[in-house]
Amino acid sequence: MIIALDGPAASGKGTLARKLAAHYGLPHLDTGLLYRATARTLMDGDARLDDVAKAVAAARGLALTDFEEDRLRGREMGEAASVVAAIPEVRAALIDMQRAFAQRPQGAVLDGRDIGTVIAPHATVKIFVTASAEARAQRRALELRGRGEAVDYHAILDDIKKRDARDSARADAPLKPAPDAKILDTTDLNVEGALAAALAITEAAI
Ligand code: C5P
């Protein structure tokens, strides 16, 4: 069983992916971390985010230990990730490892922007998780404050809108629901409500 969760920043897809993975006992890959870690490698090496050769080398060189640093989840890295994620060569460099993860014999849960459209077009279940930009900005502000970042709601809302526009407008694997994805709008749902809806969609598909 492959569960593909896609959607814009702070839609709740990551939380749902973790909870669905725990519920079904499946491994989970947060694919946003791959782009975040690629961006971090470039920034740490004082390279430009649009240096294609260095970005591809960074993507190819990702190691498991790269994903544990707290800084990866921060605001700056989300923004930088969406810049490197628009480079087709970077996306190409990350496809094989994501597909290999999806093809694990026991199944898998993956969340990102292009799981249902590019990485696992034959996924058993595809859910496109969305919510209003305002609801997402509120959640992201709470999350970042919880991690000790001093954040301003309006700045976060601007970030989210900018990131949505960049992720949706890019030519390669833009953010969009797969034709056969179920849309789950979490604007008015708490975590329990969103999980119940995601479980209902999944149970209907398996
Ligand atoms: O989901 P997260 O906020 O961690 O993703 C960071 C950025 O990585 C996104 O804004 C998007 O540009 C990129 N991304 C992507 N494809 C994925 C996952 C993330 O392009 N499958």
Automatic annotation (TrEMBL):
The keyword Cytoplasm applies. Signal peptide: none annotated. Its EC number is 2.7.4.25. GO terms for molecular function: ATP binding; CMP kinase activity; dCMP kinase activity. Pfam families: Cytidylate_kin. It is found in: Cytoplasm. GO terms for cellular component: cytoplasm. Residues 3-199 form the Cytidylate kinase domain. GO terms for biological process: pyrimidine nucleotide metabolic process. Keywords: ATP-binding, Cytoplasm, Kinase, Nucleotide-binding, Transferase. ATP binds at residues 7-15. It catalyses: dCMP + ATP = dCDP + ADP; CMP + ATP = CDP + ADP. The keyword Transferase applies. HAMAP family: Cytidyl_kinase_type1. Belongs to the cytidylate kinase family. Type 1 subfamily. This is Cytidylate kinase. The lineage of its organism: Bacteria, Pseudomonadati, Pseudomonadota, Alphaproteobacteria, Hyphomicrobiales. The gene is cmk.
